[in-house]
């Protein structure tokens, strides 16, 4: 008859056996991180990180139709001979630890128009835009906080001066200041799949608004993947090689500018007389929203320098001006740009491939 477990436990001549103690599991704020993997939104196969970006975008001639929404403002029909954008952006790692990464970004953007029609002489809104251009100077802070091997969250806060200012004296007013933010809480399921839920608060759809966001980054095999922050953008990715990547998808871009009119526009009532409780318009808020269906190619030129070439079709959803002088924020001009093809060329600096390989990082 065998010896029972109770008798075995009481046998003074037999040493007791214990499982080895489990090492303490550090949390995300203390402990030894050297042997620990942390989650993040990136997946294998995504393009290289960008440090400095210079981009130029151009559209060919297209038609524009502007309809006044209040009495006293005229309509406009003509063409835009030139619509171009220049942007210069830079990103600097301010803090880079396994459990916390902070990146500071700076940007300058300028959008230019040249109108073919009465705008250059007697249409006040477009005359201001054509002479000054629309500019944005922005700074932002991005915080990535890995929690453990699965969970992470990402937050971004951005402030910018956006409008038709020409000199530093124009920037003394707070009217040009714009703020936006986004936050996503995510899950890293494996090196090829990361997703998250959150919100975006900003001008993606022209006016300041809060809307939900779904981040979805997934690599299906050695060639194909998808990168999305829905509804703002969805992109399919094809990795032709380590130094050549193709993209196809759409983006929704929103811009919000303050336009200071040199000649005020009177608010006229149905009787033809100025409205007593409405100040003459001196400032307009311009809300621009567009959807781009795009094809993009990124190619490594040097170990630290990449090129991005992009082409597609732009659908303009709105280019509307609102009353910024009075408190009612009434729509003053409803404009529509015709759809048009566009093309852009971009150069950006990345961490050199040898440096990443030495650090054990795979692109």
What does this structure look like?
The protein is mainly beta. The protein has one domain (37-358): Porin. Helix content is 7%, strand content 58%. It is built from 4 helices and 16 strands. It has helices at residues 5-10, 119-122, 124-132, 353-358, and strands at residues 52-59, 62-68, 76-97, 100-116, 134-146, 151-163, 177-190, 193-202, 209-219, 224-230, 233-241, 244-265, 281-300, 305-323, 331-337, 340-349. The chain has a 16-stranded antiparallel sheet that branches. Strand 8 (193-202) and strand 9 form a beta hairpin. The N and C termini lie far apart (64 Å). The model is unreliable at 1-35 (pLDDT under 50).
In short:
By secondary structure, the chain is mainly β. Helices cover 7% and strands 58% of the residues.
What's the end-to-end separation, in Å?
64 Å
Beta-strand percent range: over 45%
**How large is the count of helical segments?**
4
For the sheet with most strands, the description reads: 16 strands, antiparallel
Mean pLDDT: 84
Q: What is the CATH domain class?
A: Mainly Beta
- The CATH topology comes to Porin
Number of DSSP strand runs: 16
Report low-confidence residues grouped into runs of 5 or more: 1-35
- Count of discrete domains: 1
CA-based shape: elongated
Helix content percent band: under 10%
CATH architecture: Beta Barrel
List keywords for this structure.
single chain; 363 residues; mainly beta; Porin; 16 strands
């Amino acid at each position: 008859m065998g010896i029972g477990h109770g008798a075995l436990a009481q046998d003074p001549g037999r040493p007791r056996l214990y499982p080895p103690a489990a090492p303490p599991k550090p949390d995300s704020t203390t402990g030894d991180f050297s042997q620990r993997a942390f989650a993040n939104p990136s997946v294998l196969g995504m393009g290289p990180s960008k440090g400095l970006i210079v981009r130029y975008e151009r559209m060919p001639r297209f038609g524009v139709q502007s309809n006044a929404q209040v009495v006293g403002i005229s309509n406009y029909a003509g063409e835009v001979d030139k619509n171009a954008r220049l942007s210069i952006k830079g990103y600097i790692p301010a803090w880079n630890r396994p459990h916390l990464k902070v990146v500071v970004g700076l940007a300058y953007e300028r959008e230019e128009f040249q109108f073919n029609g009465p705008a250059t002489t007697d249409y006040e809104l477009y005359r201001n835009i054509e002479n000054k251009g629309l500019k944005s100077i922005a700074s932002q802070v991005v915080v990535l906080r890995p929690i453990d091997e699965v969970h992470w969250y990402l937050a971004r806060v951005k402030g910018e001066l956006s409008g038709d200012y020409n000199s530093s004296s124009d920037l003394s007013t707070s009217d040009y200041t714009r703020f936006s933010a986004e936050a996503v809480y995510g899950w890293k399921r494996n090196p090829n799949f990361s997703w998250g839920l959150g919100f975006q608060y900003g001008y993606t759809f022209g006016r300041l608004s809060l809307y939900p966001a779904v981040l979805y980054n997934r690599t299906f095999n050695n060639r194909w993947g998808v990168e999305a922050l829905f509804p703002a953008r969805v992109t399919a990715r094809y990795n032709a090689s380590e130094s050549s990547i193709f993209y196809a998808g759409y983006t929704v871009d929103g811009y919000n500018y303050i336009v200071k009119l040199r000649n005020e526009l009177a608010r006229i009532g149905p009787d033809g007389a100025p409205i007593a409780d409405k100040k003459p318009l001196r400032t307009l808020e311009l809300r621009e929203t567009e959807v781009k269906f795009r094809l993009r190619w990124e190619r490594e030129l040097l170990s630290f320098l990449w090129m991005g070439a992009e082409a597609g079709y732009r659908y303009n959803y709105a280019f509307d001006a609102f009353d910024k002088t009075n408190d009612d924020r009434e729509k003053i001009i409803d404009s529509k740009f015709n759809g048009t093809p566009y093309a852009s060329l971009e150069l950006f600096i990345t961490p050199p491939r040898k440096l990443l390989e030495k650090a054990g990082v795979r692109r």
